[in-house]
Amino acid sequence: MKLILLGAPGAGKGTVAKMLTALDGSVQISTGDILRGAVQAGTDLGKEAKGYMDRGDLVPDSLIMGIMEKRLQEPDCAKGFLLDGFPRTIPQAEALKVLLNKLNIKLDMVVSIDVPREVILDRLTTRRTCENAKCQAIYNVKSNPPKKEGICDKCGSPVVQRADETVEAISHRLETYNQKTAPLIGFYEKEGMLHSITGTSSDAVVNGIKAHLKI
Ligand code: AMP
Q1: What SS3 class is residue 112?
Q2: 127 is catalytic
Q3: pTM here?
Q4: Catalytic (active site) residue 128
Q5: What's the CA gap between 121 and 170, in Å, rounded?
Q6: Architecture of domain 2-26+79-213
Q7: Confidence of residue 43 (pLDDT cuts 50, 70, 90)
Q8: Residue 192 pLDDT more than 90?
Q9: φ, ψ for residue 23, nearest 5 deg
Q10: 21 CB contacts (<8 Å, ≥6 apart)?
């Protein structure tokens, strides 16, 4: 399947994407994960992106489009992909449309995951992430803590609170989402590609997507 997952930070895009990859071998492409990997590896991209990310600002569109143009042409995308955290602005959505036409790729649909703001705030402040860039497993101190406190179940690396998941950075990320990313809902509605799902349970969202795609 070839999907865009839209939704505020903490709406569950990453969890839903991981569940969908298990269905048909489609790959999850998270621009946030790619950027955090670059920051940890200390690459030029990471150095350029870090300041924006720590403040909860968006990284410039040109950097993101460079990443995506390469990533979508990697062989593992042939089976399908789930775009998680991209596009985030109207110019990114427009550039993606041109890129997909050039690569002769047709999207199945754009899913907007709608979750109430209180749920999002609670999820993000209690979320913890494995700091190993190759793992980045997600935990939650309340609902899904690692078996051993502070240690990733999967790879044994420290599990930490992301620099952009302090209360101030989260409020700023949500403001950025409302200003820059929420308009994509109207953009894809006009394109006739939007399917909105309201739900706080990832299982319900995945079932909604499966029903819509008839799989
Ligand atoms: P995420 O893990 O998707 O919440 O992304 C973490 C941070 O990475 C965001 O707050 C942005 O600074 C940056 N980022 C991720 N994806 C994008 C994108 N498509 N456009 C611009 N910045 C992005």
Answers
A1: strand
A2: yes
A3: 0.91
A4: no
A5: 8
A6: 3-Layer(aba) Sandwich (3.40)
A7: very high
A8: yes
A9: -80, -40
A10: 27, 28, 82
